[in-house]
Amino acid sequence: MSAPPSPAPAGRTLTWPWFLAVVVAYLAIIQGLGALIGVDRGSGDSQFPTTEALLRNGVIPIGLSVLFGAGVVTWLGWWGSVLHYRVPVRRWVRFIPISMLVAAVLAVNYPNLADQPLSLVLALVAMTALVGIGEELMFRGIGVQVFKRAGLSEGKVALWSSVVFGLVHVSNAFGEGAQAILQAVIVSTSGYFFYLCLRVGATLLLPMLVHGLWDFSLVSNSVGTDPTTSPGMILPIVLQIALIVVVIVKRRTIEPAPKTDSADLRPTAADRAAGL
After folding, report:
1. Which of 84, 190, 241, 260 would you call most buried, defined as having the most Cβ atoms within 10 angstroms of its Cβ?
2. How far apart are CA 109 and CA 235, in angstroms?
3. How confident is the model over 248-270, as pLDDT tens digits?
4. pTM for the whole thing?
5. Predicted confidence (pLDDT) per residue in 17-45, tens digit
6. pLDDT(60) > 90
C-alpha cells in the first residue's frame, strides 16, 4: 500500500526569482539607508570608531532590514516552517555549532572592548544580534524554505541558499573594494555551516545565536577610535578552514543513515518455503 501524499506546505508561494527580488529589496534597505543616514568612518583602521557610527551605519539600517524580513515572513504565512526546520542530521554534525560558539567566545577582543565606552559595546551587541537575526531570517529562513518548497534536495537547498548569502556580501565592494569577492566566497561557506546549525537545532534560533556571536567576535577587533587586533582573531580563521576540510571529508555522512522498515526484514512466503 502506497504512503499517502504529504500535505502541501502552509502559506503563500514564493518562487526563487521573487526571492531574489526580496533579497535585493532587503539589501537596498541596508545599503541605501546606510548611505543616507550613515556617518563618515574616517580614514583610520576602525570600522565603527564611535557609538554614533555604530548606530547610524549599523544598528538602524540592519534593524529596519529585520523588520522587512519579518514582514515578508508574516505575509507569506511561513513562521511555523521558518522557525522550525526538522530535518535531522547525524550526531557528528553537532560539532559545527559547538565549535563555532566556543571559537567565537574565545576570539572576542575583550581588551579592546574594555577600552571602549559602555554605549559603544552595547551598540555592538545590538548590531551583531540584529545581523544574526536578520540574515538568518532571510537566508536560512526564507531562502531555505523557497528552495525546499521548489522540490530541491537538501544538498541543493544548502548550496543555493548559501550561494545567494555569499553573493549578497559582494555589495560590500562599494566600501571595501575587490577583497569583497573573496569575502563573498568565505561567507558562502559560513552560510553552509549556519545551514547545518539549523539542521542540528531544528530551529532557526540556533543559527541566529551562532551567527550573532560569530560576528560579535569578529567586529570586536575593529571598534573604537584606535582598535587593536586580538591574537584570538586567528581562531575563527583556523576553525573556518578546519570545518571546510571536515565537511568535504565527511560530506557523505551528513544525512542520517536510511532506516530499514522491520516489515522488510520479515521472511516472505517464498523464503519460508525455501526453509529461510
Report:
1. 190
2. 12
3. 999 999 999 877 554 444 555 54
4. 0.89
5. 999 999 999 999 998 998 899 888 776 77
6. yes
Q: Measuring CA to CA, how many Å separate 46 from each of 29, 58, 112, 229?
A: 23, 14, 12, 11
Question: What is the mean predicted confidence (pLDDT) over 2-31?
Answer: 86
Residues β-bridged to residue 113? none
- Residues 191 and 94: their CA atoms lie apart, in Å, by 16
Element of type H or E holding 172: none
CB-based contact 224:120 (threshold 8 Å): yes
Q: Residue 92: count other Cβ atoms within 10 Å of its Cβ.
A: 11
> Among 96, 195, 182, 189, which Cα is nearest to 138's?
195
Residue 251 to residue 24: CA distance in whole angstroms: 31
In this structure, the chain runs to a length of 276
For the chain, the average pLDDT equals 89
103 closest CA partner among 200, 193, 223: 193
Compute the chain's Rg from CA coordinates: 22
End-to-end CA distance of the chain: 25
